[in-house]
Design a protein that fits this description.
Number of strands: 14
Largest sheet: 7 strands, mixed
Strand order of the largest sheet: 2-9-8-7-3-6-4
Shape: flat
Helix content: 25-40%
Distance between the termini: 21 Å
Mean pLDDT: 81
Length: 446
């Protein structure tokens, strides 16, 4: 007899901080759902979207790193994003060890489910974010903190490339000028040079391994194929000067590529930190130049403008009412009818999308929870996220679309309308699905 999984206990006792720093579930009301991650407001821009192969670790426990030159506002952005207290002094390398935090992913659907079931436990989806020390020109050759923080970049799965679009005589720019396009060029080139250095050495090792093989056999064939894959990647990154994520790779080459953990294989979201006034009035002088550069060299990547000054001010306030009043006051000060909004929701969702993450919901009176999966995950593997035994004993998934639940108001009403569907092993879970898994029992060991 199959067993039906419904959340009857709190899987995690994670305490979730709200804006007021109390240990209660955060409110994400009136925020864009994950499905709308690419539909940004006026201060976010996207290039023509391009589907790329899924590179990187086959995991749902992935991390975003914040990367930028010193004094571009990385740590202040991290502090505002995570409500933490990383030092943000005005000198290079104040962030020497990466700081890590988890940020709740805003989703109005999750809020609606919490309001419907009023559960004892609430666990939203999270984005893990790491603040990495400032990168400088020559880092690939050991300048600045050199290899110490380049290894930290290797540990994350995607990057926020943060560039500086504001001028300030009080905050030193390590290059002695403000040019966000040049900042991005330095970031990309230093990562490529580091990859190139590793690939030059690796291709020689693989060449020797391939040269020592015998006349046949599966092991010999694998060594030759691995060498050919590494050589192709080497030629693309080293000789052609391109980033690994833009190459055209076979499934076998992707398997080799993922094992190399190349810095240029990581997805990127571009952030430009601009002055408060330019953000409120949407008058950034760098926007068009930045977007043109991204469209030409990094098509499909997302650019989001934000103001570190504004976000830091909002983070220091205790309540939604205070933040709302602050934003309205800024509109009055700068004489505009358009009341600005925080860009953090857009940034969090863009990071989640860059990692190709998604989530489904389980819910009831005991718990409402968002379970993180990689996009394209099938039902048995999604069940395995809840418990590894559920993947092994998967029987079926009872799926309710969120829109159907909201339209009919209850699970019973959805079922009466015939909208609850049973799915098998080949079902690809969609973001926002509400799922009850039915599982069997593991065979007893003799």
């Amino acid at each position: 007899m199959p067993l039906t999984y419904r959340p009857r206990y709190s899987v995690s006792n994670i305490r979730i901080r709200s804006a007021s720093k109390a240990a209660v579930a955060p409110s994400h009301s009136a925020r864009a759902p994950l499905a709308l991650v690419r539909l940004y407001a006026a201060n976010a821009s996207t290039s023509t979207l391009t589907e790329r192969p899924l590179l990187g670790r086959p995991s749902n426990n992935l991390k975003m790193g914040i990367l930028g030159l010193p004094n571009t506002g990385k740590s202040s952005f991290f502090n505002a994003l995570t409500d933490s207290a990383v030092p943000a002094e005005n000198f290079p390398f104040c962030t020497i060890s990466p700081s890590e935090a988890r940020v709740a992913v805003p989703d109005e659907r999750f809020d609606w489910l919490v309001a419907l079931w009023k559960p004892a436990s609430v666990v939203p989806a999270y984005l893990t974010v790491i603040d990495i020390a400032g990168l400088v020109r020559g880092a690939a050759e050991g300048e600045g903190l050199g290899n110490a923080f380049l290894s930290n970049i290797s540990s994350v799965d995607a990057l926020f490339h943060l560039c500086r679009g504001f001028s300030s005589s009080d905050i030193i720019h390590v290059e002695g000028r403000v040019d966000p396009v040049a900042d991005l060029q330095i970031l990309h080139e230093e990562l490529r040079l580091k990859d190139a250095d590793m690939l030059k050495r690796l291709v020689e090792v693989k060449r020797k391994d391939a040269g020592r093989v015998g006349k046949g056999g599966a092991v010999d064939q694998r060594k030759r194929e691995e060498y050919e894959a590494v050589l192709k990647i080497h030629d693309w990154v080293v000789d052609a000067g391109k980033e690994a994520r833009y190459g055209t790779w076979t499934a076998e080459e992707i398997e080799v590529l993922n094992g190399l953990h190349l810095l240029t294989a990581k997805p990127v979201v571009y952030l430009c930190n601009i002055a408060e006034q330019e953000y409120v009035l949407n008058t950034c002088i760098w926007r068009a130049k930045l977007q043109s550069h991204i469209d030409e060299h990094h098509p499909g990547d997302i650019l989001i403008q934000y103001s570190g000054e504004l976000e830091s001010a909002l983070a220091a306030l205790e309540s939604d009412e205070e933040r709302k009043l602050h934003l309205e006051t800024l509109a009055e000060i700068y004489e505009t009818d358009n009341i600005p909004e925080s860009a953090l929701t857009k940034i969090i969702l863009a990071g989640y999308e860059a990692l190709r993450l998604s989530y489904f919901f389980t819910g009831g009176e005991d718990e409402v929870r968002a379970w993180t999966i990689r996009s394209g995950t099938k039902a048995p593997q999604a069940a395995g996220v809840i418990h590894s035994d559920f993947e092994k004993t998967f029987a079926m998934a009872e799926v309710i679309r969120f829109d159907d639940l909201r339209a009919f108001g209850s699970e019973d009403a959805v079922k009466m309308a015939g909208k609850a569907v049973q799915k098998g092993r080949d079902y690809v879970v969609e973001g926002g699905d509400i799922i009850h898994f039915k599982v069997g029992q593991l065979a007893k060991k003799r």
